[in-house]
């Protein structure tokens, strides 16, 4: 497996974990093989990281290769010396987690919208709630304005359930979203909602 970070960053991350109390004073750190698995690097990379911490008198390594925490203060000094509050590894992990969360939310949004549109044919007996798509043209007076500022519902009687911008879809975009040219609003309302909403959205700038 490709190494995700260098031994210096791993040393900084371990020092941060010591300072935070995850690895307590006089406590033992997992063996190199387990650390290598946690950090997705080779045992040799872990060996180099532990060697750095040993040189700084943060850990002690016995002949049996047991790794013991001997100084929290030295760990703190090591982090400060390198001007890190978080190691590069920790930041990468945080970014990775956030991207995973965003991807999952995007998947759920797109799935929900697809269900709404796919179900629209089954809503013939509930026409006020059938989703309608309306595109904002290039001369619309709404461009650059928020849904709230436009008093969208008051002027159209339509409820915005989604906004499609290129390949991105936002579910229930809310009143603070600024409308742009070629945005597609997906709305629900009564039998005349398409005509009222289309007329309102595509009034030209005076």
Write the layout of secondary structure elements.
Blueprint: H1 7-19, E1 28-29, H2 32-39, H3 43-55, E2 59-61, E3 67-69, H4 72-81, H5 88-119, E4 132-135, H6 152-156, E5 159-165, E6 168-171, E7 184-188, H7 193-201
Antiparallel strand pairs: 1-3, 2-3, 4-7, 5-6, 5-7
Helix pairs in contact: 1-3, 1-4, 2-3
Describe this protein's structure.
The protein has helices spanning 7-19, 32-39, 43-55, 72-81, 88-119, 152-156, 193-201; strands spanning 28-29, 59-61, 67-69, 132-135, 159-165, 168-171, 184-188. The protein is of the alpha+beta class. It has 2 domains: 7-86, Orthogonal Bundle (Arc Repressor Mutant, subunit A), CATH 1.10.10; 94-201, Regulator of K+ conductance, C-terminal domain (Alpha-Beta Plaits, 2-Layer Sandwich), CATH 3.30.70.1450. A 4-stranded antiparallel sheet has the order 4-7-5-6, with helices on both faces. A 3-stranded antiparallel sheet has the order 1-3-2. Helix 2 (32-39) packs across helix 3 (43-55). The model has no long low-confidence stretch (mean pLDDT 83).
